[in-house]
Amino acid sequence: QAKSKGKSAYERFAPEMKEVSHERLQIESRLRRALELDEFDLYFQPIVETASGHLIGAEALIRWNSPTMGLMMPDKFIPLAEETGLIIPIGEWVIRQACAAARQWQETTGLKLSIAVNVSPRQFRDPSFVDAVSRALIEQRLDPVCLELEITERLILDNTIETADILRRLDEMGVRLSVDDFGTGYSALSYLKSYPFDTLKIDKSFIRDVMIEPGDAALVRAIINMAHSLGLQVIAEGVEEEAQTHFLQAHGCDYAQGYFYSRPASADSFVAWIRSNHRVSGA
Ligand code: C2E
Ligand code: MG
Ligand code: MG
Ligand code: MG
User: Fold this and answer.
1) Which mutation among 40, 61, 86, 205 tests ligand 1's pocket best, with the greatest number of atoms within 8 A of CB?
2) pTM for the model
3) Which residues contact residue 232 at a Cβ distance below 8 angstroms, ignoring those fewer than 6 apart?
4) Is 59 helix (H, G, I), strand (E, B) or coil?
5) What is the pLDDT of residues 214-240, one digit of tens each?
6) CA–CA distance, 267 with 45 (Å, rounded to integer)
7) CA distances from 230 to 123, 178, 249 (A)
8) In degrees rounded to 5, what are phi and psi of residue 202?
């Protein structure tokens, strides 16, 4: 945009741009050492069966406790990790930790809980990715069906042949595959019938106003029906209010996740949440 406005616009904004890039360089150099220094942490947010309220598993969400910059949220550093390629070792760490956590909850609760892990595009396309997933499952002795990999729509539409091959290999391994932030991408819906996805996660932007915006309500109902027609399950993200849970129940949405049930919590708090939660499923 600065370019289209000519040189003067660029010069006017140049000092700010310098500051931004300086901050990025700082984050980047600290990000490089964060794994060695053990500064990452996984938080877990419960995913529940909408009809019963039973816990079925959790989504793993990364946090970075930087001693110099404080608690950093993923939106602040995942894009940079992606650009620099650091997402590959960080992503491997996440998958390993997530599988270990799921295995541990299964042992302590006797429930076959599953764990959902976010995968970013560069990580997904890295030649080491499929093997890293397989290794984590074996090392942590986790049943592949208990691992769900979340992939965004944009990634799916980017690079078809390679993407199809990676998805097929993951599917053959037995892990579950979900489309994250569904509805926010370019939605060439045809990929849904050709790729081995198990689940659609309806983006929280549709859930937020589902009780007040008829358009959002119509879209959510349509997504649920379409997903079910294709044999996919549906998770609603960003559920914050009880009324939303009733809407989702009434329209047959399978699973829900959001602040209404729990905010993302540290591993210890998540285990405490399971213990104090009497709606735990016996399945
Ligand atoms: P996401 O995968 O769509 O994760 C859901 C985000 O929504 C999380 O933000 C979660 O804290 C937030 N959320 C959950 N319930 C509610 C709710 O009721 N209301 C609202 N307003 N928000 C809710 P978070 O943890 O900041 O993560 C942001 C994004 O960062 C994630 O979006 C995901 O794309 C990415 N991310 C997180 N962890 C990882 C990771 O380990 N690897 C990769 N590659 N990306 C990650
Ligand atoms: Mg996700
Ligand atoms: Mg499958
Ligand atoms: Mg999402």
Assistant:
1) 61
2) 0.92
3) 192, 197, 198, 199, 200
4) strand
5) 999 999 999 999 999 999 999 999 999
6) 10
7) 28, 13, 19
8) -70, 125
